[in-house]
Specification:
The protein is an all-alpha fold and 227 residues long. The protein has a two-stranded antiparallel ribbon. The chain is elongated. The N terminus is likely disordered.
């Protein structure tokens, strides 16, 4: 046990050292991400099954998504992963102001992503493609998606999964952004350094996971079947 670890203000009383505390935090974060993989994996499995059953419907429905907006959002999230990585690096070096700047940049990119999703969701609402809440008449939906009236009813499966998967992903970002703001505030006060930057590192793992989920969602929903 190092004396630095014993007296560091960030060391919780039930840990022997900062290294021990970081190991516990890392294990907890990976356990959390593992159950998140199972959760999203279940949605991916349901999507794959229904897409196989109603392939023509899912293919036609995917044409209504704007793949250019999806590609833009993919680039935005890739950039946010870079800024998050830079924030972890700056925090590890004890550069509080730089870490704060990178964290704020990550928040801005996250907000840009969510703004695009609002535009996409509004488009679905306008065209009556929100299952349950605002689903248009079968004839109108059939004409919109170039499907038969019978197939238009099954299109609700595609858009239900679309909103469930992208909405859950967006919720993870909405939860993560205030945490990034909290970290930016503490970084500006010089709380993080070579000895202790675990919160930034753990949040970085979470943010990278959210980005990776989108890397799978984008081709699954926007590209496969569309081209």
């Amino acid at each position: 046990m190092s004396s630095a670890g014993e007296h560091h203000p960030a060391l919780a009383h039930h840990f022997e050292s900062l290294d021990n505390q970081k190991e516990a935090a890392t294990l907890g974060m990976w356990a959390f991400l593992a159950q998140e993989v199972l959760f999203f994996g279940g949605l991916f499995l349901v999507y794959a099954l229904y897409r196989n059953i109603y392939y023509p419907v899912f293919e036609a429905s995917s044409h209504h998504l704007n793949w250019k907006l999806g590609a833009f959002n993919t680039a935005v999230l890739i950039c946010s992963s870079l800024t998050m990585a830079m924030a972890v690096h700056a925090a590890a070096l004890g550069h509080g102001r730089q870490a704060m700047g990178w964290l704020i940049a990550t928040i801005v990119l996250g907000a840009a992503f969510l703004g695009v999703k609002v535009v996409e969701y509004h488009d679905k609402w306008t065209h009556g493609l929100v299952p349950g809440l605002h689903w248009g008449p079968p004839e109108t939906v059939a004409e919109e998606l170039h499907l038969s009236v019978a197939d238009a009813l099954h299109a609700q499966l595609y858009f239900s999964l679309y909103f469930a998967m992208t909405g859950l992903h967006a919720l993870h970002m909405i939860i993560g952004m205030p945490i990034l703001g909290w970290l930016a505030w503490h970084a500006s006060r010089g709380r993080f350094g070579p000895e202790y930057h675990t919160p930034v590192e753990m949040t970085g793992l979470y943010w990278h996971f959210v980005d990776i989920i989108w890397i799978f969602l984008f081709p699954l929903l926007y590209l496969i079947g569309h081209h």
